Amino acid sequence: MARKSFTQNTIAMVYDFDGTLSPQPMQEYTVLPKIGIEPEAFWAKVHKEATATGSDPMLVYMRLMMEALYKNESVRITKDDFAAMARGIQYFPGVEEWFPRINAYVKKRSGGAANVHHYIISAGQKEILEGVPIRKYFKQVYASEYHFNQYGIATFPKLLITDTSKTQFLFRINKGKEAISESINEHMPEGERPIPFSNIIYIGDGMTDVPSMALTTKSGGHSLAVFNPKLPKSKATCVRLLDAGRVDFIAPADYRDNSKLAKRVQLLLDSVISGIAYAAEVAACKAENAPSA
Ligand SMILES: [Mg+2]
Questions:
Q1: How much is the pLDDT for 253?
Q2: What is the CA(45)–ligand 1 centre distance, in A?
């Protein structure tokens, strides 16, 4: 029986967004200033209501945002406006140059035998993320989305992504079922999955990433937690993740060349690349010695 050629040579780098690539929640650079809401009081209101009513915080956020927009008739935010506001988002140092550098690194270290795709899985808002200047580097951006009616007004959540539902998207990447419309429940043997978990590196910043980190690490992949060096609390969270074995490494969220994060990610990439070379050789050896038809 002829064997299929080896195809599991793609690496997925999967990123959380808020606190991982950008210091503040994305809404604080975009919608909140636009409608004149003070972030701290707004998030406090979101969390208070979510706790009191047993609601998901992101759903509370999405509803309060719609209510604030309806209350203020002079502010109308369409899908395009959300994307346009994304230009105000700030990033941790080096983020804008990170992706082409990683792509070049993988190409060089693997001699072209491996390639890398980048993904965002965020509980934040997709309409904002669609407008970020770094959007072009991502194969997919998964985040919560609004339904917009025929007048271009957000009227209902269309897709909700929470801490735990983030893991669904890791399975989508793993099984190559990246469109939301595709079912991921069908059994798929490990050897047929386009991106095995051992080729996945997940980068997040905190407790909200625990389900994704745990799934990735337990399934043979790698996780990293980054912290804002200006916030001691942020580092303490990462240390807890490290102690609990949720992540391989922690590092300051500094994406510049030669940073601690860059070096640790390169080390993980080297390890994944040699895993790919090994698996490819195993497949080649089996193909060579398969009984001829
Ligand atoms: Mg985060």
A1: 98
A2: 19
